[in-house]
Design a protein that fits this description.
four-stranded parallel sheet; Rossmann fold; 15 helices; five-stranded mixed sheet; alpha/beta
Length: about 400
């Protein structure tokens, strides 16, 4: 993979010429900023792993654009706070000359950064945020939403359970932008397919006890309890649902956004049987396994989540697009990213829609039983592939203003 990738880079260098690239690229260097959660609840799913993923992508590109222009990566912790995320992003753009901001876990932080980069000379490539507003009412000509969104992850799990005759739902929802978006998307999908939502309950984020919320959900008698939350809140919901015997009582638990690190933290005994939708799993094919081995060598054996893999994929496509137009101008680069097909060993082939949605296949998985697992990170069984056009919200339903241009 390395030799093929670098050969393509040299070909681009020959085609466009090093001197013309130098003339159009700001400060004669490329500067990438990984802005994410390095110390909070999503640090395992993003954090240093996202930074390492960006490093691997740059290394596969030869560490220099077109063989000559250096590529630098910096990082910062937004502490899960949109005001801090916004302040860091503004400093990066105004003072440090960052050309692209990456990852930005949590929807509230991503929406803040989305506004800072709008109309700027930079590109925003969120991988960790899920809100569909990034390709809806808040879409931006500077932004490409990379790995997943709340519609795609909810769609796979909900559709699978509806097909199995589980029609009544109740949501346990994180009370912030991401949870609201996840519940809203899930509700639309359920109702459109003839199901019903009996209610929902919203909880504060990162609480140590969700028992009262789990009990309210169980008392609804809904066939499925949908978890419209993430990371430690999802883990706590699953643990307490198991303690209260939710599945023994005939109800099904469905995590609408469950990451590899969540399942690993829960353990297969607690998580077995859960359905989940993901854009990437490390043990899918030769390309994903090769990337996961390189990643694990720097991350103490940890395998990458889809969010971390998304950072790699986004950086790879960004660098190809900058090279293609010999410019780091934010809107020009995004326009080229939309024009150029997306292709890499982790996500396969795809494309970027006019609303900034990176379109690629998603996958429905089921967590393995302990007896099925052959190793520490051998956690999923693949149930089915979900084509991109089915996985993501139809363009006809988008409220993105870019579609009118």
């Amino acid at each position: 993979m390395h030799s093929i990738f670098r050969a393509s880079v040299l070909g681009l260098a020959f085609l466009f010429g090093l001197h013309s690239a130098e003339a159009e690229i700001s400060n004669n260097r490329i500067k990438l900023g990984v802005l994410t959660d390095f110390s909070g609840s999503a640090a395992d799913a993003t954090g240093m792993g996202s930074f390492v993923a960006a490093q691997l992508a740059v290394e596969d590109y030869g560490r220099k654009l077109l063989g000559e222009i250096p590529i630098e990566i910096i990082k910062a912790d937004h502490q899960s706070k949109p005001d801090i995320a916004s302040a860091i992003a503004r400093k990066w753009l105004d003072v440090e000359g960052v050309n692209a901001i990456l990852d930005t876990t949590f929807s509230s932080a991503a929406l803040a950064v989305n506004e800072v980069t709008r109309g700027s000379k930079a590109v925003f490539l969120p991988s960790g945020a899920g809100t569909t507003e990034l390709t809806g009412a808040k879409c931006s000509p500077n932004t490409v939403h990379w790995t997943y969104d709340t519609y795609s992850t909810a769609n796979g799990v909900i559709s699978a359970l509806l097909k199995r005759g589980l029609k009544s739902w109740f949501f346990i929802t994180s009370d912030y932008a991401f949870g609201h978006s996840l519940e809203a998307d899930g509700t639309r999908i359920i109702k459109a397919s003839g199901g019903e939502v009996l209610g929902s309950v919203r909880h504060p984020s990162y609480t140590n006890d969700l028992s009262s919320f789990v009990l309210q959900a169980m008392n609804s008698k809904a066939q499925v309890i949908g978890l419209a939350n993430s990371v430690t809140d999802t883990q706590m919901s699953v643990k307490q649902a198991q303690e209260f015997g939710l599945e023994q009582g005939g109800q099904q638990l469905a995590g609408l956004v469950i990451l590899l690190t969540d399942v690993h933290a829960l353990g297969l005994q607690a998580a077995q049987g859960l359905y989940l939708t993901a854009a990437f799993y490390w043990d899918m094919n030769e390309g994903t396994r090769a990337f996961a081995d390189r990643f694990a060598a720097r991350m103490n054996g940890t395998r990458p989540t889809m969010l971390q893999a998304g950072v790699y994929s986004a950086v790879a496509h960004y660098l190809k697009s900058v090279a293609a137009i010999s410019s780091t101008d934010g809107q020009a680069v995004v326009a080229e990213m939309k024009k150029m097909p997306v292709s890499d060993p982790l996500f396969g082939d795809g494309y970027i829609r006019a609303d900034g949605r990176n379109m690629h296949d998603m996958y429905l998985f089921q967590v393995k039983k302990p007896s099925e697992s052959k190793g520490d990170w051998d956690l999923y069984n693949l149930i089915e592939k979900i084509p991109a056009e089915v996985a993501f919200r139809p363009l006809s339903e988008s409220t993105c203003q870019l579609l009118k241009q």
